[in-house]
Amino acid sequence: MFPDYQIGDVVRLRKPHPCGGYEWKIIRLGADIGLECLTCQRRVMLSRRDLAHRMKAFVKRAQDEVPSS
Ligand SMILES: [Zn+2]
Asked: How far is the CA of 59 from the centre of ligand 1 (A)?
């Protein structure tokens, strides 16, 4: 199964962008996932399959607060 991505999640990829950055923010969800490089702000689109293969870990989840009750 693919991870449950959300807009605003930050992910770390296995290989660095040419700019040297590893971390990307998810900016668009659909058949393809839009990612923005946190280092150079360049945007790319990846299929869910490609992202699942290239992603190493979540750095930050958009909704990571613990339920309060
Ligand atoms: Zn970059």
From this structure: 16
